[in-house]
Amino acid sequence: MEPKTPAERKATLSRLLADWGGTVDPELLVVAMTHRSFAHEHGKTGSTGTNERLEFLGDAVLQIIVTEYLFRNYPDEPEGDLAPMRAATVSQQPLAEVARQIRLGDYLLLGKGEDRQNGRDKDSILSDTLEALIGATYLSSGLESTRVVVERHLRRLLRNAPRRAVAMDWKTNLQETLNQRGLGEVTYHLTEKGPDHNKRFHVKAEVNGEIWGEGEGSSKKTAEHNAAKAVMDTLFERYPEEPSDA
């Protein structure tokens, strides 16, 4: 929330920096917290008054930090396995969870409309703002200091990267498992509801003419992912044993 006085703003920034643990120039920190909805409501046009450019930079910095961590700590993994491990670490949902751990939503400068639409807890806004914060940290203190902060906040994600990579791609894993067991293809049936700014997607996953699982989410991809996971649960309930080579 926007501080009303310079003293309140300083105290707010101090709390955020204490949670974040990195050194960030105060002006850059304000920009990192400024969503485009806030900038537009206050008559600022273009991207210079929003966190979008810092988000662009922070995304690149995050990618190199995570890539190097995986390269160093998983020396026996081939490139084909490292790529999904990285994707599972830097995708929207896990980054939003990291943002929630430091209460990043409390510090966002949002437009009134976006604030009313629960913008402070949207995965997309939280993950973008976290990347902007990483970008601001990089500009303020350099790569090595930023690496320390990022690796500390993403420690659990990085340590669980192999498991998360497998779980992330439920659709691929599901179809491969169905093929192995001779159960045919899965078909996803999508419905959606709600206004454009707050749509909800619902997916029913069909196998052999029967709905085996359903999923819901704020995007088609998330809903299909959740439906595929539900089908996997059904699959292992009905077919608990791996098929025999014999």
TrEMBL record:
UniProt keyword list: Cytoplasm, Endonuclease, Hydrolase, Magnesium, Metal-binding, mRNA processing, Nuclease, RNA-binding, rRNA processing, rRNA-binding, tRNA processing
Annotated RNase III domain ranges read 25-142
Which is one GO molecular function term here?
A: identical protein binding
Where it sits in the cell: the answer is: Cytoplasm
Q: Which domain of life is it from?
A: Bacteria
Q: Name one Pfam family in it.
A: dsrm
> What's a single GO CC term here?
cytoplasm
The positions flagged as active site in the entry are 59, 131
GO term, biological process aspect, one: tRNA processing
- Ranges where the DRBM domain occurs: 169-237
* InterPro entries named among the record's database cross-references: dsRBD_dom (IPR014720), RNase_III (IPR011907), RNase_III_dom (IPR000999), RNase_III_sf (IPR036389)
Catalytic reaction list: Endonucleolytic cleavage to 5'-phosphomonoester
Cofactor(s), by name: Mg(2+)
Which annotated residues bind Mg(2+)? 55, 128, 131
Task: Return the EC number.
Answer: 3.1.26.3
Q: Can you tell me which family this protein belongs to? A: Belongs to the ribonuclease III family.
Per its UniProt record, what HAMAP family does this chain match? RNase_III
Q: How does it assemble?
A: Homodimer.
Function as written in the Swiss-Prot or TrEMBL entry: Digests double-stranded RNA. Involved in the processing of primary rRNA transcript to yield the immediate precursors to the large and small rRNAs (23S and 16S). Processes some mRNAs, and tRNAs when they are encoded in the rRNA operon. Processes pre-crRNA and tracrRNA of type II CRISPR loci if present in the organism.
Enumerate the NCBIfam families for this protein.
Answer: RNaseIII
- From the Swiss-Prot or TrEMBL record, give the protein name: Ribonuclease 3
